[in-house]
Amino acid sequence: MEDLSKLKPAEGAVRNNKRIGRGQGSGRGGTSGKGHKGQKADTGYNRRRGFEGGQTPLARRLPKFGFTNPTRVEYKGINLDAIQAMADKTGLKVVDIEALRKNGLVSRNDLVKVLGRGTLKATIEVKAHAFSATAKAAIEAQGGKTEIVEKR
User: Fold this and answer.
1) Beta strand spans in 11-139 (E)
2) What angle do CA 74, 76, 80 make, to 5 degrees?
């Protein structure tokens, strides 16, 4: 077993900082790599983001358009064929958010809406945040149940 006290970073992973303004012999003395005079040689200089040298910046050349609805609810769509494939693979009779998460179909904070693409062969109880009308009809036609789960 390795001795953890002898661990070192990989070769070439650690570099020394540039020490500027430490005399002519360092190669970075005098003007400290900033050239002679001018706005950019001054201490505290900071060009604002998107500045294009006085030319009208891209953000102002392009028109504004569109609308962003502040109350929009974003769902992750899961189709019936994906649920059927998961049920075939795992043998589940109840498909809920946790089961979808474990099988990698949704992420941790996703809101799930079941959509109607594909066909369902098994009788499955599905729990999700929302259902399309076609998905709900297809699940119930197979003798399954749909349950709407409360959004966090």
Assistant:
1) 75-79, 94-95, 111-115, 125-128, 130-131
2) 140
The model carries a pTM of 0.59
Is the CA virtual torsion 79, 83, 85, 86 positive or negative?
positive
Measured at the CA of 93, the angle between CA 113 and CA 87, to 5 degrees, comes to 70
- Residues 28, 19: contact at Cβ < 8 Å? yes
Q: Which residues pair with 125 in a beta bridge?
A: 94, 145
Dihedral (Cα; 61, 62, 67, 70), 10-degree rounding? -60
Residues 101-124: what's their mean pLDDT?
92
Q: Which residues pair with 78 in a beta bridge?
A: 114
